[in-house]
Amino acid sequence: MYKAQxxxxxxxxxxVIALIWGANMAIIKIGARELPSLFMAxxxxxxxxxxxxxxxxxxxxxxxxxxxxxxHGIVIGLLFGTEFGLIYVGLEYxxxxxxxxxxxxxxxxxxxxxxxxxxxxxLNHWKAGGLILSFMGVVTLFLRELGSFSLSTLPGDLMALLxxxxxxxxxxxxxxxxxxxxxxxxxLFYQVLFSTPMLFILSIALENPIFFRFSLISGFSMFxxxxxxxxxxxxxxxxxxxxxxxxxxxxxxxxxxVFGVFLSGAxxxxxxxxxxxxxxxxxxxxxxxxxxxxPSPKSSLKT
Length: 303
Fold this sequence. Notes:
Blueprint: H1 8-31, H2 37-59, H3 67-90, H4 96-103, H5 106-117, H6 125-141, H7 143-146, H8 154-177, H9 184-206, H10 216-241, H11 246-251, H12 255-268, H13 275-291
């Protein structure tokens, strides 16, 4: 049994994670000036795998407790690799803003899957309303881009939507099949380890050449992606998955595109903050209040 609502400590951690992930798109674009995107994703998973393996050995954690865990680990690794492959390839066909919106449909897939597959994570009116309100906030950020739909963006849009569905499926799969059999370190290790070969094959097949040049800028980009994102932030994320309802956790992922626009535009790329950003922040914040709200039970009268 895990807690049905989040206290301020995990909420604060989730906001920090959202900030880290929100900056990741800009960091990836900076690194992509010198390194191909899929190759960066492969290198990120590889470096994170090595770091996690060393960490787990130092702590005396068994890598694969059983054959069943190994099988589930392969599944989530393939899901993870496919998700990121679709994101990076899809960005070649559609706008990043559209990708953000479609990728962050993941909370809907999580909430729906959790409702039917997880015993203690049912969908209610408050949670559904909060998710819808938050998603409206994300849409507000990119309202201008939504009007530019054309068939030329359809392949990328479908890839981004499918990646969001895969993200949601992965979260529910972990909660159902691995949360009671593994520790967060193991879960994360399986994802990055088994996604590495897939991403490498995709890089070989789709990117030519797979290596351009390497400088201090691309080195910082890879450090951020490998250590800050793929190692530290993912480890904390999976620790939260093992402790709290996944529909609540994924709801906070709506902050990532909001922070991403702020960090990539106003801070990193020196673009102005639009009124849409302020409106989106308000809608997302209100949505999180509803998602995390639980009405107090009525007190029964004693006779």
